[in-house]
Amino acid sequence: MAEAAATPARRSGGGAAAALPSWSGTALRLVVSIAVTLFGLMALTFLIGRLLPLDPVAAILGDNATQEAYEAMRAQLGLDQPLWIQFGRYVGDVLRLDFGTALTTGKPVLEDIARVFPATIELATVGILIGTGLGIPLGVLAAAHRDTPLDYFVRIFGLLGYSTPNFWLGLMGLVLFYANLGWVGGPGRIDTAYQWDIEPVTDLLLLDTAMAGQWEIFRNVLSHIILPASILGFGALAYISRMTRSFMLEQLAQEYVIAARVKGLSWMRTVWVHAFRNVVVQVITVVALAYAFLLEGAVLTETVFAWPGFGRYLTNALLAGDMNAVVACTLLVGIIFVALNLLADLLYRLLDPRTR
Question: So where does this one cross the membrane (predicted)?
Answer without folding.
Answer: 30-52, 123-144, 156-179, 221-240, 271-294, 325-348
